[in-house]
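Researcher: Here's the sequence for the chain we discussed earlier.
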Amino acid sequence: MNRINSQPDQRVALVTGSGRGIGRAIALALANKHWSVVLNYCKDENSAQTSFQQIHQMGGNQASLIQADIRHREDRERLLDQIQAKYDRLDLLVNNVGIAPRNRADILELTESSYDEVMEVNLKGPFFLTQLTAKWMIDLLQIAKIKSPKIINIGSISAYASSTNRAEYCLSKAGTSMMTTLFADRLAEYGITVFEIRPGIISTDMTRPAKEKYDQLLSQGIAPIRRWGQPEDVAAAVLAIAEGYLPYSTGEVINVDGGFHIRRL
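Model: Thanks. This is the structure I predict for it:
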């Protein structure tokens, strides 16, 4: 592949699972702030193409579309190789990709195949993509190619809120939280900061099957802000980190949940 470098000061972001929902909103928000955005998708090329076209309709923005299943080492390596070939840098990784169980099953009936699939997509893939990305970011910092790189993991209130009919999802998000802590600790010496954004009840394809349930819970005040969260709410938090508004923070969890995390009597 021929190298087509962005401008010397053009920041580059990789957003996994950016074909729709939260990932698309994050990609659009970054592009609106003149980031070059690498849109990663696994299977849904049509949705990813829609995200790609929406960025280009903004005008003057660079975007790339790369298919890769980050569960697999070869795909993770190919993804970063293509980013290096085109941009020769990476300033921000947003680990957004995630799936819910194909079927919600009681914890006593949970199958190993469902457990393995969810954990591979939601935790194993992002963990090893972060490991690979962090090594490249360290190299880029040492040659002063980038400044203040960041890694953002999109978690969930399911990291601590029990849902016994989707235990594998809860476990994957609890793991994401510790993954954030571990990488934040290890990478701080290099100036790489790591954050977790923890969404609550967000209006996406993932929550649509349970819309009636969540409508009722929100109306009853399960969160102090009694409305559905929107993907753009999560994107706004990502943008605050990406734009450098938290320079003395790392390992931080930012709740975007309408106050769900507040314990109330």
